[in-house]
TrEMBL record:
Keyword Transmembrane set for record: yes
Organism placement in taxonomy: Bacteria, Bacillati, Actinomycetota, Actinomycetes, Micromonosporales
Transmembrane segments: 287-308, 329-354, 374-396, 403-425, 466-488
Keywords, ordered alphabetically: Membrane, Transmembrane, Transmembrane helix
Name of protein: ABC-type transport system involved in multi-copper enzyme maturation, permease component
GO cellular component, as recorded: plasma membrane
One Pfam family it belongs to: ABC2_membrane_2
Coiled-coil positions: none
């Protein structure tokens, strides 16, 4: 088998056009990385850019702006409150010449509007926190470190946070007597700020149409009503202080206000505490957008690697030297997969390095493991897709038909789905059942349950996890190879 692999590698190396094709595939990936990096919205370097945003513990860029009525908490303590009301107001975008948006009619709050209790390591944007809250339409939630979200009762209005040492535990109740534990989270010891808060994400509507997507909407204001507020171990009997966390980073955010009538507090303001919506911003995988073009070029080579021998009759010599046709197919698959994996790995690495050098790595938030995964995953995607092309070429024995089949199975579904040509529901299924599902290995932006977003292929989200999508491609390739092997054994050379 080693000798057979060496012979097939020699065949591949002896055709200058195939080597040039490998080079073209690599160059295309790097050139499109340059285009993607240079074409990134220039505003990403301005105020509010991802590179300037605070980060969660895993490096995720986050938003941290809210209306906070607080007192100092130096040690252990307990906060309890009832949230009888949470309402919302949508804001129209500012009219030309007017920097202040107009309020629309009173509306239900945004689904992820929040009003509740929070213990936070100071009032600096990005500092650690643990909170329990009533939301617009997702019931009670406990959230901490921006990226962690736990569901609580759907109908509770009483909330409680208990800090004991380095742990904060959240509770919820529907009557203020029987309490349900929502969850616990670590939070450093030392001086903290604790109190009630309100926040709301902006109102956004996502639209997908033939050839594109759009996001429309505007800001929002949430108003939370609180009563029965008790605080043990917090402050020293002093006044509650209003702080607009993150207001300096969002100059157009609505003003935070607080009013008190007896034991009832009303907080009003905008801002949000959540991971950044990743669907509409720059994404690291955009630097690897040339992967589908490199795949197409190398898939053509995969087809030609076998159909050229059939067309010229050279396959008879190959089968005469090695009667086991399945071994010949296996050797071709090994050689082609190894060569294209190497090309894909070099091209993906170069594209990532060049793209981040042009725009800056801080604009493409992703940890080292994620970067390795998308680079290696892209190389593996290209290699397996090229072997699939080889199998299809073996089945059809005609170069044009095999190339067309590869394009229809892999490239076309990806383009139609990512470019929003297909309806969102159709694109979702296409990227579940076709070999194009493997492009999920390039997704870097997570789907946050606590962030409203159109999680569709047009916004860069795939229906299957990274290696789940890759497994679909492997399944197609395995089936095609089995069929190709069976036909090789039955047909005459």
């Amino acid at each position: 088998m080693i000798g057979l692999i060496r012979a097939e590698l020699t065949k591949f190396r002896s055709v200058r056009g195939w080597l040039i094709g490998c080079g073209i595939a690599a160059v295309l990936m790097v050139l499109l990385a340059v285009v993607a990096a240079a074409g990134t919205d220039a505003r990403v370097g301005g105020p509010g850019a991802r590179g300037a945003l605070p980060r969660a513990s895993d490096g995720t860029p986050v938003l941290d702006g809210f209306t906070f009525l607080q007192q100092p908490l130096d040690g252990d303590g307990t906060l309890t409150v009832r949230v009888p009301s949470l309402t919302g107001v949508a804001l129209r975008p500012p009219t030309p010449g007017d920097s202040v948006p107009d309020e629309q009619e009173q509306a239900t709050p945004e689904p992820w509007a929040k009003a509740g209790l929070i213990i936070k390591a100071g009032t600096t944007s990005g500092s650690a926190y643990t909170a329990v809250m009533v939301t617009g339409s997702h019931g009670v939630r406990m959230q901490h470190d921006f990226i962690h979200d736990l569901a609580g009762p759907t109908d509770a209005r009483w909330l409680r946070l208990v800090r004991s040492g380095g742990t904060v535990t959240a509770y919820a109740s529907s009557d203020g007597a029987a309490w349900t534990t929502v969850g616990s989270a670590p939070l450093a010891t030392g001086a903290m700020s604790a109190g009630i808060f309100v926040a709301t994400p902006p109102h956004q509507e996502y639209e997908q149409f033939l050839g594109g997507t759009s996001v429309i909407g505007g800001g929002a204001i949430a108003t939370g009503t609180f009563d029965n507020l008790t605080a043990a171990g917090i402050g020293a009997g002093g006044d509650w202080n209003l702080v607009s966390v993150g207001a300096d980073d969002s100059p157009n955010r609505p003003e935070s206000t607080s009013t008190r009538n007896g034991d009832t507090f009303v907080l009003r303001g905008g801002g949000d505490i959540a991971p950044v919506d990743g669907g509409t911003g720059p994404k690291l995988e955009q630097l690897l957008s040339g992967g589908f073009m490199a795949l197409t070029v190398l898939a053509v080579l995969g087809v030609l690697f076998v159909t050229t021998e059939f067309r010229r009759g050279m396959v008879r010599t190959t089968f005469a030297a090695t009667p086991s046709r399945v071994r010949v197919l296996a050797a071709k698959s090994v050689v082609l997969g190894a060569v294209t994996f190497a090309v894909g790995l070099v091209a993906s690495t170069a594209a990532l390095l060049v793209g981040t050098a042009i725009r800056g790595s801080n604009h493409y938030p992703a940890d080292a493991l994620t970067q390795v995964r998308i680079v290696v995953g892209t190389a593996a995607l290209i290699a397996v897709a090229t072997v699939l092309a080889l199998a299809i070429g073996t089945i059809l024995r005609r170069g044009a038909g095999a190339v067309a089949a590869v394009v229809v199975l892999i490239t076309l579904p990806y383009i139609l789905s990512a470019a929003a040509v297909l309806p969102a529901a159709t694109a979702d299924w296409v990227l579940r059942i076709t070999p194009a599902a493997a492009f999920a290995v390039q997704q870097t932006v997570p789907e946050w349950p606590q962030v409203d977003q159109a999680y569709t292929p047009a916004f860069g989200f795939f229906p299957l996890p990274a290696w789940g999508g890759f497994a679909v491609l492997c399944g197609w390739t395995a089936v095609a190879l089995v069929i190709a092997a069976a036909l090789l054994r039955r047909r005459d050379a």
